């Protein structure tokens, strides 16, 4: 299989090869050193301190498979779900170049999560803010998640702050306040949507739930402990946190069942 083009996940394969050769870029761009992955490992170790081989995790919208590989290397029974042809090709290439029998990938819409049964943990990074029905998705995902939910996502805020994103005025969708974000033109072809690797696939606009209502939703879905995780903002946490709530509008939200 020819090496597909990777755009986001710089994965170290078993033979030492990187899926995105550095070419002068900093070492921090290697997947294993990514701050979000490091912080995710911490919460996984906290909730599942031993015998990870006995637990399962699903990586929703797994893109090119980088996080899935990391979870499988930790020992989890890992499933990555990805909808795009070109991204799933990257996942399959990675699968062929790592010795991880506990890792598998499927090409599917994440809304079909129920087809794959229940998981001890669910990892939803860079996906929720690409959906037009994020509440319905989280409701479905919560039914399939036995213990731990990790949602790394953009959100909206009540104030009309100037951000780097073009968002709609504050409105409601699925009974929750938030703002709409345009993903692609309504007349985009299937081929064009396939090539927009960091965008939604089915819906041309996505809904960013207002932050406090997203947190409350996770609680309402039966996760007795709800946290916001901040350690991926290091170094310079103060500045990054300030930008997170005014400019970048992104955070990590954790739900743990009692």
List keywords for this structure.
single chain, 258 residues, alpha/beta, Rossmann fold, seven-stranded mixed beta sheet, three-stranded antiparallel beta sheet, 7 helices, 10 strands, globular
Query: Which CATH architecture is right?
Result: 3-Layer(aba) Sandwich
Secondary-structure-derived class: alpha/beta
Largest sheet, spatial ordering of strands? 3-2-1-4-5-10-9
Q: How far do the termini sit from each other? A: 45 Å
Low-confidence stretches are: none
Could you give me the name of the CATH homologous superfamily?
A: Vaccinia Virus protein VP39
Q: Using DSSP, what is the number of strands?
A: 10
Strand content: 15-25%
Shape: globular
- Count up the domains: 1
Helix content range of the residues, please? 25-40%
Query: What is the alpha-carbon Rg in Å?
Result: 18 Å
Tally of DSSP helical segments: 7
The CATH class turns out to be Alpha Beta
Integer average pLDDT: 92
CATH fold type: Rossmann fold
Order of helices and strands: HEHEHEEHEEEHEHEHE
Largest sheet data: 7 strands, mixed
């Amino acid at each position: 299989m020819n090496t597909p083009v990777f755009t986001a996940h710089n994965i170290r394969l078993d033979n030492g090869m990187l899926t995105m050769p550095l070419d002068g870029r900093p070492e921090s761009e290697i997947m294993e050193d990514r701050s979000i992955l490091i912080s995710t490992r911490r919460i996984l170790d906290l909730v599942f301190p031993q015998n990870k081989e006995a637990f399962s995790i699903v990586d929703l919208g797994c893109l090119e498979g980088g996080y899935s590989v990391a979870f499988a290397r930790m020992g989890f029974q890992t499933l990555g779900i990805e909808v795009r042809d070109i991204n799933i090709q990257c996942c399959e290439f990675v699968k062929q170049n790592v010795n991880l029998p506990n890792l598998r990938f499927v090409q599917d819409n994440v809304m079909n999560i129920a087809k794959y049964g229940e998981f001890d943990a669910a990892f939803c990074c860079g996906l929720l803010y690409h959906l037009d029905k994020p509440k319905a998705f989280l409701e479905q995902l919560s039914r399939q998640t036995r213990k731990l939910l990790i949602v790394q996502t953009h959100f909206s805020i009540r104030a009309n702050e100037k951000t780097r994103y073009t968002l709609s005025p504050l409105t409601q969708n699925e009974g929750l306040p938030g703002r709409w974000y345009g993903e692609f033109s309504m007349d985009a072809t299937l081929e064009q949507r396939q090539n927009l690797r960091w965008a939604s696939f089915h819906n041309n606009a996505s809904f960013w739930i207002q932050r406090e209502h997203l947190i409350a939703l996770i609680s309402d879905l039966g996760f007795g402990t709800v946290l916001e995780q901040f350690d991926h903002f290091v170094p310079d946490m103060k500045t990054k946190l300030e930008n997170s709530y005014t400019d970048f509008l992104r955070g990590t939200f954790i739900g743990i069942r009692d």
